[in-house]
Every structure is written in C-alpha cells, then in structure tokens.
Specification:
By secondary structure, the protein is mostly helical. It has helices at about 5-10, 15-90. The model has no long low-confidence stretch (mean pLDDT about 90).
C-alpha cells in the first residue's frame, strides 16, 4: 500500500499539522482583514457623527452671535431711555 504521510497520520489518529497550518495561514489574514475593515467602518461612522454634531454647534454659535448683537442693540436703546429719564429727573428735581 502506498499511502501518503497525511493519510497515514489520519489513519493513525495523529494530528495533521500541515492541514492546520494551511487553514490557519489562510484564515488568519482573512479574519484580520475583516476586523480591520469593520474597525475602519465604525471609525468612519464616528467621524461622520462628530461632523454632524460640529455642524450643529457651528449653527448654534452663529445664532448666539446674532442674538448677542440684537441684545446689544436693545441694551443700547435701553441705556438711551434710562439716560433720558435720568436727565428728566435732574431737570425736574
């Protein structure tokens, strides 16, 4: 009988390290590539969500600047009215 070493190892109940090493040398890079792809995908999703949040913060900051400008204008008008009332009180009293 002419049996190869692999068949003899299987028939003898031993471990076929050649087959294990071939499967491992194929599966390890594939699993590593899948893990790397998934990691980069979720990192991209995180960056997208950060970009959306930053855009909303920018919009909020722009609205705050506009509101502050309006408030300054209102405060200036109020200061004019208060000074007019003070002047009127000085003239009367």
């Amino acid at each position: 009988m002419t049996e190869s070493l692999g068949q003899a190892a299987i028939a003898a109940g031993g471990t076929n390290y050649t087959a294990i090493s071939i499967v491992a040398s194929v599966m390890v890079p594939i699993c590593a590539a899948v893990a790397l792809i998934l990691w980069n995908y979720y990192r991209l999703l995180r960056h997208r969500s950060d970009a959306v949040a930053m855009a909303s913060y920018r919009k909020l900051a722009e609205e705050a600047v506009v509101n502050m400008a309006e408030m300054r204008a209102d405060m200036a008008k109020l200061a004019e009215h208060v000074s007019a009332v003070e002047q009127l009180m000085r003239d009367v009293g």
